[in-house]
What we know:
CATH topology: Rossmann fold
Number of domains: 1
Number of helices: 7
Low-confidence stretches: none
Bound molecules: iron/sulfur cluster
Amino acid sequence: MKEVCEKVVEELNKRGYFAVYCATKEEAFDAIMNEIKDVQRIGMGGAMTMKELGVAAKVEEEGKLLTRGADCEVFLLSANAITSDGRIVNIDGRGNRVAASIYGPNKVIYAIGRNKIVDGGIDAAIERIKEKACPPNCVRLDKKTPCAVTGKCADCNSPDRICKVTVVFDRCPTGTPTTVYVVDADLGY
Length: 189
Ligand code: SF4
């Protein structure tokens, strides 16, 4: 997957991000920890990838993890999907994660595993999220949704529905410098 990941990095850099290829999880961990070493107030959203990298535990151990919203210096997150031409797609229930990734923090840092890369544009990205991200997240969060039971999206009207807000990043948002580490490993859902 090295070539695919490197191509995504190239596309992200064209879209205004500071994107970096990481060959391993360890490389991504070191790069992120180095980037946030002088930061005191850190926010985090949708933390499975950051947990799997070891970043969440380290930041918590250092007493720097403060929030799940935008009232932080740096916000850490992943993507539910990224198209091979560099468009990040995230779907939230509450919207705190996507809000903080657009406006508020001084800086945003993504870590995105190779399993999140899709060919086929935005439709394929949304399909990936509904098939591969939402069902396991509903199970993990004990949500009473059809996909938590069947593993398939039923476009439900459940109050527990976790896919209520869909955000597509065509470019890096103005005024929010954003680093994206594309990691050549499977991370999160
Ligand atoms: S719409 Fe409902 S069933 Fe479909 S993925 Fe979202 S929460 Fe699950």
